[in-house]
Amino acid sequence: MKTNRIPCILFLLVAFFSFGQGQKDYKPTKENLEARKWFQEAKFGMFIHWGVYSILGDGEWVMNTQNIPIKAYEKLPTFFNPTGYDAEAWVKMAKDAGMKYITITSRHHDGFSMFDTKANNYDIVDGTPYGKDVLKQLADACHKEGIKLFFYYSLLDWHNDDYFPRGRTGNDIAGRGAGVWDNYIAFMKTQLTELLTNYGEIAGIWFDGHWDQKLWDGERFGALQVDWHYDEIYKLIHDLQPQCLIGNNHHLATIEGEDFQMFEKDLPGKNTTGFGTSASDIGKLPMEVCETINGSWGFNLQDRQHKSKEELIHYIVKAAGYGSNLLLNVGPMPNGKIQDEHQESLSEVGKWMKQNGATIYGTMAGPISPSEKMATTQKGKTIYLHILDGSQKVFLEDFGAKIKDVKLFSDQSKLTFQQNAFGLFLQVPQNKMDAVDTIVEITLR
Ligand code: GLC
Predict the structure, then answer these.
(1) Is the CB of 234 under 6 A from ligand 1?
(2) Which atom of ligand 1 is nearest to the CA of 60?
């Protein structure tokens, strides 16, 4: 035991230092603080994973999981022709689902840019028969419809030789060269400048792939082997568009310059995946949970794990119960369409949000932490109790706040309740129960 202690402490120190500086002395501008407030209240967004990988119908990691050599993968763009793509239709779909923003992959780990970049020729305009900038179309549609647009941006790149030293993934992909790290940083800066210059107002940049460069010390992943230059990158973004919110899917506590904290496939602090952010790393910034509508991010033909309407609604409610947004992912098909099952689910969720959105949008975390049974959200003196397990009788332990009245949210009918030193007991008549979520409105004095 003892012998391990010194290397362990050293490792922790190295891990700490090598995480890198964020944007030094970052003071969010007024616009940025307003954007954070907007974000916190928005509660629901659409994540879109779309790239040339969708052709293979095997998820966005297919280049790595099938170890497709660079030369072979480069054939994909030559027949990527999403003639069914209709940006307006996507934006309307998101809007009808009750979503307030869209986050789309501008470049994923495969290194292919879904926008007209001048940093290389490996992009949708220069490399596909389609030849049009899909992000530009989406940006125009979003701006027209009042939906905010975020760009997902991969830090990790299996195609670019300058992504060297390589990280933990993609090492069996044939044809990767050994370039120069600093050129890679310059490449990312060029692309980010393009993304924040040519597409109007961008609500945020969503980084992913940091973890690829974390070293394994035999016991755990910790120190980075590279400098991501977050200090310069975050500053560049905020200089170009001060309101632009920066988030990084590094699964750690946020660093200076980041404007929101994200949680991948987990409610804040749950870390059921094992690679997620731990509860002790949760800070004070606005939060966002991202999750898939089925089991995959990128289009996966064989994925049958489509989540039910109930599951999706419960996830929105629980995320809101933590004060967090839910960024719900769809992976469009190579023809540019979103599969029917997902369109249907989105429309069902939209109907629910239309009726019950007042208990979600603009709320903060309620007094009782979410569980399988229930979740609570709060807006001023109103607490919304979401009963998720069909219980007619609910006991809220230690609920001591003074109550004015208790009503059913749906029809505003009064509910009977008793409050004593142990908490609050309330009951909903059987015929007023909702199969998905029975919402009780508790007004405080
Ligand atoms: C992971 C995956 C990636 C996906 C992301 C979304 O980091 O590498 O494919 O884009 O999660 O949260």
Answers:
(1) no
(2) 9
Which of 3-7, 67-71, 142-146 shows the lowest per-residue confidence on average (mean pLDDT)?
Answer: 3-7
For a ligand 1 pocket test, name from 105, 155, 208 the mutation site with the most ligand atoms within 8 angstroms of its C-beta. Answer: 208
Domain with CATH 3.20.20.80 in the chain: 8-361
Percent of the chain scoring above 90 in pLDDT: 91
Direct distance between the N- and C-terminal alpha carbons of the chain, in angstroms, rounded to an integer: 56
How far, in Å, is the centroid of ligand 1 from the Cα of 156? 11
The topology (CATH level 3) of 8-361 is: TIM Barrel (3.20.20)
Q: By alpha-carbon position, which residue is closest to atom 11 of ligand 1?
A: 264
Q: Which CATH class is domain 374-444?
A: mainly beta
Q: Are strands 287-292 and 324-330 parallel, antiparallel or unpaired?
A: parallel
93: left (phi over 0), alpha (psi -120 to 50) or beta: alpha
Whether 31 shows a pLDDT value over 90: the answer reads yes
- Intervals of CATH 2.60.40.1180 along the chain: 374-444
The pair of structure tokens assigned to 265 is 């496939």
